[in-house]
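Hi F.,

I've been meaning to write this up properly since the lab meeting, where we talked about keeping a consistent format for the predictions we share between groups. The idea is simple: the sequence comes first, exactly as it goes in, then the structure tokens exactly as they come out, then a line or two of notes. No screenshots and no reformatting. I'm using this chain as the first example so we have something concrete to point to.
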Amino acid sequence: MQKFYNNPHRVVEEMLQGYLKSHPDLISKTGHPRAFVLKNLDRKSGKVGVVSGGGTGHFPAFIGYLKPGYLDAAAIGNIFEAPPAEVFFEAFRQADCGAGVICIYGNYKLDNQCVKEAAKMAARENIRVELICANDDIATISENGDRTNSRGLAGEVLLFKIAGEAAARGKSLDEIAELCRRANRNMRSIGVALAACVIPEVGVPNFEVVDGTMEFGIGHHGDPGLFACKTRTANETADLVMDEILKTYDDSEKHEVIVLVSGMGATTSMELYILYNRIADILRGRGITCAGAFIGNFFTSLDMQGVSVTLMETDDELKGLVINME
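Output, unedited:
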């Protein structure tokens, strides 16, 4: 597959350079070449700092969410690799405006290790850090419903917006952490792939999807799915996805949700809206109110041809924080 690369071993550095050059008034470098901060962040403001980070390959996550109302600082790793602890620590330092820092990250082993070590480093500098571990991927939920080891998927983006907006409104660190944990508990996501992604340094797909089939329940790194099946139409795929997500919804209760339909890099907007067309009908048929729908490439996986669907049960407070998400 042909790509616009110079050196496949330098794609992260060259991408970051290009992004910085295209946003010179928005983003600043820091003391570490993989940590970045909002240029006009007022460190005397007394607001809570909002940080996230992870491996490259998920654009616009993570550097693309460095903007007002979202993230104040971001830690960037190699392709699908967690940033080291010192990168997260630098992001915490840069985001600290005197009221502590909230860090939102995906539930992956190395990310957990690096973030927790960075939080210890920050504590030694008297910077309080609250950690929010996104684990919305129900494909990895345990049989008893425990999501402790569930992966993070695109629902993480909703947490960026909730934390960023709440911080901008002057909420305390404890208040923002409670909002994010509530939202995280209320989220359910699942991913489907028609074709795998290609890691630049490797040059071949990082897992196999046989022609005429699709992989249901995949992760953002080409992690294995629940099962492979014959490729289905958009409506049939939406039915399969929603059946899995809505398993725990009680039709005797009233539900109001935010919907996020995110492409994984090589899926057209046309396809995403065709999928959402069916999702909206399913929600209406189940008597579930859609308080807001966001369709686009919010959290990708390089050039994977696929989609992830997230439902977050909402309330007036959460809805007010995410309803104007871009």
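Notes:
The helical segments are 11-22, 85-95, 109-124, 156-168, 173-185, 234-245, 269-285, 316-322.
The mean pLDDT is 95.

If this format works for you, I'll send the rest the same way.

G.
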